[in-house]
């Protein structure tokens, strides 16, 4: 009995283990309930005492390894500061964010990529703190750069020089994006014929990415065009291609730089922002700066930089960053220039076009003919262009007459092409002058034709060139009736924009109202130079509305 009594007072080893296990379960449940354990984005549990999950970081490829090394060190010193780093091009990342698949932290190569995020995708992403910089330079072979010579500015190089320059698509490539934005900042949106022709060619023959430009150089190192490139990309390329090494020139007035911003998602919670801040602070150390320098990147203050062909990284002037609106306008212009147009020209052949123009010895029609033929030389091959003329009673009772239907400029027409046909028609315009200015009826007919044949893969427009106000003895539409018809017919999903070019006694108020009703633009030409300028505005820089 004594032994039995002793067993009741004691506790078996198995019972002790069971109680301990139960206590551990209770403790774990309490800790889970207080949030001492959390899960990362993959569902893995964090360490005890860590309140936030692992943050995802999406970095542009050239900086991804340096970012990973720096954040790994931060995690080693603070286990609750955890990051999962992946790499993706800035262009692809912007698309991913627009689809709602953004990271917690985004490190593109330029703050300008924020512009590419669809505003309807959620809360706005804001510019962040720069981790490193790399200036945009003009890269090329030694002979090609010698031919270019000094580069006063990106504006001079891109808009005015005759240099054999090639760009990558600014919608995809940051170096060409910044070079083009720098070239257009502070310049009027209207461009002259020479600049318009240059930008048309440049946009049409732009390579998709910098990689293709570099491949072009490797294929023809002594004759490939010069092109914008970041200093970092140039240094990385030269390290692998010693025999085909690139040289560089920095524009004398300065350049823009890639700035590699640390951008936190606007969706992060407070505790996640705290972790993000710890990650950002990890880059403000000598070790982090050394890691970034090994990736051929400069510090945010533009100090440091890689050696290029044995020479120390040059000092340069950083241009003021364009505003968001300036960046947007520049890229919209580029996209318009490279979009094929589908255009019907409506040309006034009333008797007054034979009158003297502002240039001595030339009629108004002769001035228009010269400008039109010059424009025809720079229209891209993919464009679809047609031509009508108008004055009273051109085709029976109608005030307009179709001379050339809208066709692609390369289409075969007779023994030549559509472009050839249009040139011959322009040459014959001075032989067709007669009658009064049946403007309003002709405008409505042209608008209806272009709307009926609308093609959404083109910019669709009617360009009206006239030297007078509406004058139709037979009656016809009034201005009020025309504007009402245009307003009722306008379809924002199928926009046809009217661009008006007036000269002589043209009614500027009426022309402006006609253009405004369709989202187009109106211009008055008083001199031959004006004719050329507004022709380019009408043909090459159409308002997108």
CATH topology of the largest domain: Rossmann fold
At the fourth level of CATH, the homologous superfamily of the largest domain is von Willebrand factor, type A domain
Placed side by side, the strands forming the largest sheet appear as 12-11-10-15-16-17
Whole-number total of structural domains: 3
Q: Mean of residue pLDDT?
A: 86
Structural class, from helix and strand content?
alpha/beta
Counted by DSSP, the helix tally is 19
Which residues form runs of ≥5 with pLDDT under 50?
A: 1-11, 13-46, 541-545
Description:
By secondary structure, this protein is of the alpha/beta class. It folds into 3 domains: 55-127 and 261-294, 3-Layer(aba) Sandwich (D-Maltodextrin-Binding Protein, domain 2), CATH 3.40.190.10; 134-259 and 304-331, D-Maltodextrin-Binding Protein, domain 2, CATH 3.40.190; 339-540, 3-Layer(aba) Sandwich (Rossmann fold). The chain has helices spanning 2-9, 13-33, 61-77, 90-98, 142-148, 154-160, 174-184, 193-204, 210-219, 231-240, 270-281, 286-294, 324-337, 364-378, 418-428, 439-452, 479-489, 508-516, 528-540, and strands at residues 55-59, 83-87, 105-107, 129-130, 134-140, 227-230, 247-249, 257-258, 261-264, 341-348, 384-395, 398-408, 412-413, 416-417, 459-466, 497-502, 521-524. Strands 12-11-10-15-16-17 form a 6-stranded mixed beta sheet, with helices on both faces. Strands 2-1-3-9-4 form a 5-stranded mixed beta sheet, with helices on one face. Helix 6 (154-160) packs across helix 7, helix 14 runs parallel beside helix 19 and helix 16 packs parallel to helix 17. Mean pLDDT is 86; it is low at 1-11, 13-46 and 541-545.
């Amino acid at each position: 009995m004594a032994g039995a009594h002793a067993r009741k007072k004691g506790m078996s080893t198995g019972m002790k283990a069971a109680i301990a296990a139960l206590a551990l379960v209770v403790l774990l449940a309490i800790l889970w309930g207080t949030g001492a354990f959390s899960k990362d984005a993959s569902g893995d549990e964090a360490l005890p005492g860590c309140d936030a999950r692992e943050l995802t970081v999406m970095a542009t490829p050239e900086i991804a390894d340096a970012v990973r090394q720096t954040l790994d060190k931060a995690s080693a010193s603070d286990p609750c500061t955890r990051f999962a780093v992946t790499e993706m091009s800035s262009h692809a990342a912007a698309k991913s964010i627009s689809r709602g698949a953004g990271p917690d932290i985004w490190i593109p190569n330029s703050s300008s990529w924020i512009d590419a995020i669809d505003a309807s995708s959620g809360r706005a992403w804001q510019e962040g703190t720069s981790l490193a910089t790399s200036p945009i330079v003009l890269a090329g072979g030694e002979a090609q750069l010698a031919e270019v010579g000094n580069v006063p500015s990106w504006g001079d190089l891109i808009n005015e020089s005759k240099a054999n320059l090639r760009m990558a698509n600014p919608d995809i490539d940051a170096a060409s994006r910044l070079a083009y934005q720098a070239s257009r900042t502070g310049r009027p949106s209207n461009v002259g014929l020479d600049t318009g022709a240059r930008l048309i060619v440049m946009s049409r023959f732009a390579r998709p990415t910098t990689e293709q430009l570099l491949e072009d150089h490797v294929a023809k190192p002594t004759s490939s065009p010069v092109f914008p490139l970041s200093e970092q990309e140039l240094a990385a390329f030269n390290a692998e291609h010693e025999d085909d090494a690139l040289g560089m020139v920095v524009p004398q007035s300065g350049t823009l730089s890639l700035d590699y911003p640390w951008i936190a998602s606007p969706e992060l919670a407070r505790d996640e922002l705290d972790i993000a801040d710890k990650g950002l602070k990890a880059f403000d150390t000598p070790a982090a700066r050394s890691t970034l320098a090994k990736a051929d990147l400069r510090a945010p203050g533009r100090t440091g930089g890689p050696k290029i062909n044995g020479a120390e990284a040059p000092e340069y002037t950083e241009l003021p960053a364009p505003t968001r609106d300036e960046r947007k306008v520049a890229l919209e212009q580029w996209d318009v220039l490279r979009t094929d147009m589908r255009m019907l020209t409506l040309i006034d052949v009333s008797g007054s076009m034979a009158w003297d123009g502002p240039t001595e010895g030339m009629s108004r029609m002769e001035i228009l003919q010269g400008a039109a033929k010059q424009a025809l030389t720079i229209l891209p091959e993919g464009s679809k262009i047609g031509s009508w003329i108008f004055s009273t009673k051109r085709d029976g009772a109608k005030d307009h007459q179709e001379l050339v239907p809208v066709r692609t400029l390369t289409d075969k027409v007779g023994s030549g092409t559509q472009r050839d046909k249009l040139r011959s028609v322009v040459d014959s315009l001075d032989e067709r002058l007669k009658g009064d200015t049946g403007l309003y009826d002709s405008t409505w007919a042209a608008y209806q034709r272009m709307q009926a044949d609308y093609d959404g893969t083109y910019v669709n427009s009617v360009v009206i060139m006239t030297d007078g106000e509406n004058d139709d003895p037979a009656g016809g539409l009034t201005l009020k009736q025309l504007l009402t018809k245009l307003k009722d017919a306008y379809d924002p999903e199928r926009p046809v924009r009217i661009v008006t070019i007036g000269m002589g006694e043209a009614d500027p108020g009426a022309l402006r109202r006609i253009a405004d009703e369709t989202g187009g633009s109106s211009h008055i030409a008083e001199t031959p130079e004006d004719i050329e300028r507004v022709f380019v505005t009408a043909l090459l820089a159409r308002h997108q509305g």
